[in-house]
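User: quick one, fold this
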Amino acid sequence: MKNVSVLATSIGLALIGLGAAATAQAATYVVTTHGSGLGKTQLERIRAAGGTVTAQLPQVGLAIVEGGEGFGSAAGAIPGIQSVTRDVQLQWHVPEPEVAPITAEAFMNPPFSGDDDRFFDLQWGHAAVDAAGAWNAGFRGEGATVAVLDSGIYCSHADIAPNLVGGASFVPGETFCNTAGSSHGTHVAGTILASDNAIGTIGVAPQAKLLGVKVLSAATGSGSFSGIIQGIVWAVDNGANVINMSLGIQGGLPRGGQGANAVAELVNATKRAIQYANANDVLVVASSGNDARDLDKDADVISFPGQLPGVLTVSALAPEAWAIDPSTNLDLQASYSNYGQSAIHFGAPGGDSRYPGNEACQVGPVVQACWVFDLVFSTVQASNGSSFYGWNAGTSMAAPHVSGVAALVYGKHPGIKASQVESILRRSADDVGKPGKDDASGQGRVNAARAVAF
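Assistant:
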C-alpha cells in the first residue's frame, strides 16, 4: 500500500506484563473462577491478599482486580479460583489520516446520484454491498443496536449524534466521547450507521442505534485484554445486537514464546465474553488483520480476536481505479488483507491504495489523487462546530460493512437469533471469488439487499 494512514488493524503487542513478576506498584489482574464469579469468602481472601476488585463479571465468571507485589501467587491459592493472570496492555497503531479530512460544508451539492447527503456518492462500498437496495425495500436498521468497541467516538459529529444512544469507557482516564485523538472508532461507526440526514455520509444501516464502547485510548492507542472483555460484556448487557471489533494484532498473536501461558489465559477469558455474547444472540464481527498473511498456514499465531470461536471474521476487498472507471470490479482482494478459508467468514469493502501513480481524479466536486478514491470514505473527527470526513483503508473498514448488513437483518427480524443472522448473511452473500468458499472472501461478499429479502 502507499504511505497512507490506515486506521485499521495495524498494532504492535507491547510485552507489558508478559512473564514479568508483579512489582510493588499495583498491576491489573484478570481473575478466572470455576463458577459464576467471586463469592463472599473469595472476596475477603482477595482483599487479604492485597487486591482491590474493580469489576465483577459474574456473567462470565471473571473479575478484574488491582493488586500489588505477591498478589498473583497469593490469590491463585484461593479455592474456587482457576487462574490469576496479570493483564497485558496492547499498543495499537492508529495514526491520523494522511489525506486531509474535509467538511460537508465544503461541497454543497452531491456528485451525481441525486442523494442529498453530500458525500454519499464517494461511498463505493455501499454500492458493492447494495445498501440502497435494502433501503428501497424498506429496511434501514430501525430497531437494531450496534456496539462499536474501538478508540471512542466523536459524539458531536453531525452524522453520528442522531443515532448515538450511549456508551462506556474501559480506558482509565478517558470517556467514550472523544474531543481529540483517534478517529478510528468514528470512521467505523459512520460506515455502519451514519444518519441519512442530508449532511455528509450515510451508514449501511442509517436508522440503527450506536453504543460507543472505548477499549483503546484515543490518545495513545493502547488497550488491554481486560478492557476488551469488559467492553463485550457491557455491550451485551446494554442491548447490543451486533458488536463490531475492528481490532487485531500486527503479525498475529503468538501461540508460544515468552508469556505464552499468561496470554493463553487472557485469550480464554476473552472467549468467555464472546460465548456470553453468542448465548445472548449478539453477533460478534471482527476484522481479519492487515498483514497479507495466509491464516490457513500460520500455526504459530492467531488473528486476535478474529480467529476466536464465535466471531465472524472479515477480509477486505477493494477496487482499483474506481474513480477512473466506476464499473470496475469492486471485489478484488485487498493487497494487505489476511486471508484463508479456515479463518475468513466474509469479504467486504475495505479499500486499497495499490493503484499506481498520483494523477488527480475528480468525482463530482471532489478532487484527489485517483488512488485515494479506492479507500473507504466515512466520518472522522468533529471540532469547532464542524464535522469532518475522510478516507481510510483496512480490514477495520471491511468489518463495519458486515456489521451494518447484520443490523439491517436484526432490524427486520426483532428477536432473531444470532445463528439465524449468520445463516442469512451466508445464504445472501455474493460468491465473488472462486465457486464456493474461498481464501479471499470466505463465504462471499455480503449483500444487503439480498439479506433483507430473507
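User: anything notable?
Assistant: The CA atoms of residues 9 and 248 lie 5 Å apart.
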